[in-house]
Design a protein that fits this description.
With 135 residues, the chain is of the alpha+beta class. It is 25% helix and 43% strand.
Amino acid sequence: MADERNFELKIITPDRVFYEGEAVMVEFNTTEGEIGIYKHHIPMTVIIKPGILTITEENDETREAALHAGFVEILPDRVTIMAEIIEWPQEIDLDRAEAAKERAEERLLHKTSETDVARAETALQRALARIETVK
């Protein structure tokens, strides 16, 4: 019998089903702040902000992934995350993430009128999420 605390969690990207299973809790960043979802959460849709996604499974085991963009449909017994990009730690190239972090920091430090600050900040958030997920 399934744990009464569990809800169905599905994470999909344009090219694959990233995760499909039962979860006790899922945590991630939204444009409104961090959110933690348990079964029976009030229905809502939220927009993802780059950061670490943490899935708490039965036996309180946790899995982390770098979640970059997309949106989430939250229902009382089911959560569906439609992610543009999400990566397990073993899928992340740490050297590449460190280089992307340095490039983004450099753009923000030496910005000009042509610098797209929002894009540089998002690139930095994505790089930091990747680095933090691996470590």
